[in-house]
Design brief:
Blueprint lengths: L1 H17 L3 E2 L4 E3 L4 E3 L4 E2 L4 E3 L7 H4 L5 E4 L4 E2 L4 E3 L4 E4 L4 E2 L4 E3 L4 E3 L4 E2 L4 E3 L2 E2 L13 E2 L3 E3 L4 E2 L4 E2 L4 E2 L4 E2 L4 E2 L7 E4 L4 E5 L9
Parallel strand pairs: 1-4, 2-5, 3-6, 4-7, 5-8, 6-9, 7-10, 8-11, 9-12, 10-13, 11-14, 12-17, 13-18, 14-19, 17-20, 18-21, 19-22, 21-23
Antiparallel strand pairs: 15-16, 23-24
C-alpha cells in the first residue's frame, strides 16, 4: 500500500512538473489526490497543502477530505498552511500568499484572481459555538459559512479574515485589520474590527 501511494504521488508530481509547476521538495502534501495546481505556479519550502484534518493519523491523511484548487501563475511562499478541514479552497489565477499565511477551509474559501495576501495573515472559515455555558466550547461544534474574496484585492500583513465574510473586488485591507463583516468593492478598511476608511479613487495610491 505504501509503495502504491508513493508511486501515485510521484506520478502526480511528475505531471505537475511537465505543466511548469515548481514545488519545493520540502513541502508537506497530504491527500494529494484532492489537490490541483495550475500552470507555472510556484510552491516554496515548508508549505503544507492538506486535504484533510491536520490532527488525524497518516492513514486518514491519504484520503481527500475537501479539495484544494490552485490556479495558474500563483505563488505560495514559505511557511504557508492551506488545509481544507472538510471544505473546498479555491485560489484563482495569479494569487500570491506570502510567508506564514494560514488558510483553513472548513466552510469553503474562494480567493479571486490577482489577489495579494501579505505575510502572516489568517483566513478561517469557521467559528466555535459557545452558547451553552455548561458544555465545554470544544464539544459544542462549529458553525461554517465560508469566505469569499473577489478579484484584485490587497490584504496587508497580519490581517485576520473571519467566517461569513465577502470582500469585494478591488478592496484594500490595511495591515493588522480583523475583518468580521462584508467589505464593499473598491473600499479601504482598517482596524479591529475593520471599518471603512474611504473608497478608492484615481487620484492616488493608498499605502498599507
Amino acid at each position: 500500500m505504501e509503495l502504491k501511494l508513493y508511486l501515485k504521488r510521484y506520478l502526480w508530481l511528475k505531471k505537475l512538473k511537465r505543466a511548469g509547476v515548481k514545488i519545493s521538495s520540502k513541502c508537506k502534501i497530504l491527500a494529494h489526490s484532492g489537490i490541483s495546481i495550475g500552470f507555472a505556479t510556484e510552491v516554496h519550502s515548508n508549505v503544507t497543502l492538506a486535504c484533510s484534518y491536520l490532527n488525524f493519523d497518516d492513514n486518514f491523511l491519504n484520503n481527500p477530505n475537501g479539495s484544494i484548487s490552485i490556479g495558474s501563475k500563483c505563488l505560495i511562499h514559505s511557511g504557508c498552511i492551506i488545509a481544507t478541514y472538510g471544505g473546498d479552497i479555491i485560489l484563482s489565477d495569479q494569487v500570491s500568499l506570502n510567508p506564514g499565511t494560514i488558510v483553513y477551509g472548513h466552510g469553503g474559501i474562494s480567493i479571486g484572481q490577482m489577489t495579494r495576501i501579505a505575510a502572516h495573515c489568517t483566513l478561517i472559515s469557521a467559528n466555535h459555538n459557545f452558547e451553552t455555558i455548561d458544555v465545554p466550547i470544544m464539544n459544542q461544534g462549529l458553525s461554517t459559512k465560508g469566505i469569499i474574496i473577489e478579484d484584485d484585492v490587497w490584504i496587508g500583513t497580519r490581517c485576520v479574515i473571519l467566517d461569513g465574510v465577502r470582500i469585494g473586488k478591488g478592496s484594500v485591507i490595511a495591515a493588522g485589520a480583523v475583518v468580521t463583516k462584508d467589505v464593499a468593492p473598491y473600499s479601504i478598511v482598517a482596524g479591529v474590527p475593520a471599518r471603512l476608511l474611504r473608497f478608492r479613487d484615481k487620484k492616488g495610491d493608498y499605502q498599507c
